[in-house]
Design goal:
This protein is of the alpha/beta class. The chain has seven helices and twelve strands. The protein has a single domain, classed as Purple Acid Phosphatase, chain A, domain 2 (4-Layer Sandwich), CATH 3.60.21. About 30% of the residues lie in helices and about 25% in strands.
Amino acid sequence: MKTIVISDTHLDKKFDKRKFNFLKRTILSADKIIINGDFWDSWFVTIDDFLISKWQDIFPLLLDKDTFYIYGNHDPQQLVKNNWKYFATAAGEYYDYHDGGTSVHICHGDSFLLGKRGKIFEIYAQFVAMTNNSLAAKILSRFMHLVEYLGYKIFGKKFMTQNKISKKNNYLQKISRNPQSNEWLICGDTHHAELDNFFLHANSGCIHYGQGSFVQIENGQVSLVKIDY
């Protein structure tokens, strides 16, 4: 059985055909899908508008793969409510299961990083939350996304390894389970795809800005797949 963990797709009103095709291929290649948070982006679209967007074409594929949906910081439970039923068969804050003698704990990871993101990001996130999707908040959020997009385009994958983003993954590694327990911790949130076989920690990265990554679990083996789309 092949289980694929995706995260941080940040889908909104804007439809991206290339991203859609990448998601479709990825979903069809799996027996089960775990959406590990930030599937849709509440900073740019309401859940109601998301459900009727062009992205709904992918929902039947997810339902067919017995998809489990984990809430993220951009798509929290209080905003999703019961609407996850349109694209998943179950939902929760985390997902635990066993495969080929390997135990896996999957969560978005944002709760572990509270207070660890830096003052600028914390102020930014608080402003967006307080202004409740105001025009100013959307403009600021778009600007921050533009910075990340240009970072990818100018510096490539080095952009994710030469700044504070990689440090967030290092922190997540430190809180990973005891390697002797053979229990993996799989997170998302940081957008930095990474796999560490010693700490038994993996980050599914993101499917964004033409960068596609996901964690694959099959016959007890955890691997990381990175593909530009």
